[in-house]
Design the sequence.
C-alpha cells in the first residue's frame, strides 16, 4: 500500500503562481510513488482536463478539486483567506462547480469571491481542507485569536461534518512549528481530524526560482521589490515531495500522513466519467433517432433564416 497522497497542488493554470504544467505534475507524482495527487488550482477547474487525461494514461489516481478564495473586504485577492475542496463523487463535482460559478460571478476577472453562506446546501460529496496558513482558522491562530479560530472551525464542522480537516503544512521554517502546534491543540480541543499536505506550487525544487519570477510578473515588480513586499515564498520547499520525505517531516504526527491515503481512497470521482452524458430528449413520432430529429430541426431553422430552398453554400456549412 502506498503511504502518502498529495492533496493540495497548483498547476500553472493558477495563473502566474503555479510553476508546472498539469502533465508534469501527474508524471512526477507517479514517479514518486504517490498514492494519488489532487489538482487544486485557484478558483477553477482550469487544469483539470489535461491533468485527468494524462494521469489516466499513466494509470495514476488524479483527484479533482479547487482552492477557493473567500470574499474579504479591504484585502487584495492574493491575500484573502481560502478553502480547499476535494471531489469525492458526482454530487461533489456538481457542488464544487456550483460554488466556483457563484464565486466567479460575484467577482471580476481574477477576483473570485466565495461566501460562507454559499456553502449551505453545497457540501455533499466534498472533503474540505482548512488551507493551512491561508485559511480562516489558521489566520486567526497566527493572530493568537483562539476564539475566532474556534468559531470558524465550528462553522466548517457544522457544514462538512467529519469531512472537514485542519490542513497541516511544514516548509521547514521555525514559525511553521509554532502554527502546527496551535493547530494540533485546536484539533484536540474540538475533536477535529487533521491531514498533511505540502501546498505544492511546482513539481521540482529547482522550479522555485521560476515561481518567484511568475509572482514578479503578476505584481509588476522586480525580484528585489517582491522580497521587500513579502510577495515571495520564503524558501524552495513548496515542491512535490516523495512520501518518505513527508513522513520524516511529519514524524511527530503520523496520523496526518495516514489520513492523506484515507481521503484519497474516498475521492473516487474521475473527470472522464462525465464524457458522453447528454440530456435525454423525447423523440416525436416519425423520427428514427435523436440525430435525425436534430437534423430536421436544423434544416427547419435554416429554411426560416435563409429561405427555401436552401442554397448549396448554406447547406455545405450545415
Sequence:
Amino acid at each position: 500500500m502506498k503511504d502518502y497522497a498529495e492533496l493540495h497542488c497548483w498547476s500553472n493554470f493558477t495563473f502566474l503562481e503555479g510553476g508546472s504544467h498539469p502533465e508534469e505534475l501527474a508524471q512526477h507524482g507517479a514517479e514518486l510513488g504517490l498514492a494519488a495527487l489532487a489538482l487544486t488550482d485557484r478558483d477553477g477547474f482550469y487544469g483539470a482536463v489535461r491533468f485527468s487525461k494524462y494521469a489516466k494514461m499513466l494509470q495514476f489516481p488524479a483527484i479533482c478539486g479547487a482552492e477557493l478564495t473567500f470574499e474579504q473586504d479591504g484585502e487584495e485577492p492574493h491575500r484573502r483567506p481560502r478553502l480547499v475542496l476535494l471531489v469525492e463523487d458526482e454530487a461533489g463535482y456538481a457542488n464544487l462547480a456550483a460554488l466556483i460559478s457563484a464565486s466567479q460571478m460575484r467577482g471580476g476577472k481574477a477576483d473570485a469571491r466565495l461566501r460562507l453562506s454559499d456553502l449551505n446546501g453545497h457540501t455533499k460529496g466534498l472533503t474540505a481542507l482548512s488551507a493551512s496558513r491561508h485559511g480562516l482558522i489558521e489566520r486567526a491562530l497566527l493572530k493568537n485569536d483562539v476564539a475566532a479560530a474556534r468559531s470558524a472551525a465550528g462553522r466548517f464542522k457544522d457544514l462538512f461534518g467529519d469531512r472537514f480537516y485542519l490542513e497541516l503544512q511544514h516548509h521547514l521554517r521555525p514559525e511553521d512549528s509554532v502554527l502546527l502546534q496551535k493547530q494540533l491543540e485546536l484539533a484536540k480541543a474540538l475533536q477535529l481530524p487533521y491531514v498533511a499536505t505540502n501546498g505544492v506550487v511546482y513539481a521540482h525544487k529547482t522550479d522555485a526560482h521560476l515561481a518567484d519570477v511568475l509572482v514578479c510578473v503578476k505584481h509588476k515588480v522586480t525580484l528585489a521589490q517582491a522580497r521587500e513586499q513579502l510577495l515571495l515564498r520564503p524558501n524552495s520547499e513548496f515542491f512535490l515531495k516523495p512520501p518518505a520525505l513527508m513522513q520524516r517531516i511529519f514524524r511527530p504526527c503520523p496520523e496526518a500522513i495516514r489520513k492523506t491515503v484515507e481521503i484519497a481512497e474516498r475521492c473516487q470521482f474521475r473527470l472522464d466519467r462525465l464524457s458522453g452524458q447528454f440530456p435525454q430528449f423525447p423523440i416525436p413520432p416519425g423520427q428514427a433517432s435523436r440525430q435525425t430529429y436534430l437534423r430536421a430541426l436544423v434544416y427547419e431553422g435554416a429554411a426560416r433564416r435563409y429561405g427555401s430552398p436552401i442554397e448549396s453554400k448554406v447547406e455545405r456549412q450545415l
Q: What stands out?
A: The chain has two domains: 22-274, 278-318. Residues 90-106 form the longest helix (17 residues). Strands lie at 37-39, 62-69, 82-87, 126-129, 164-168, 194-196. Residues 278-318 form one domain.
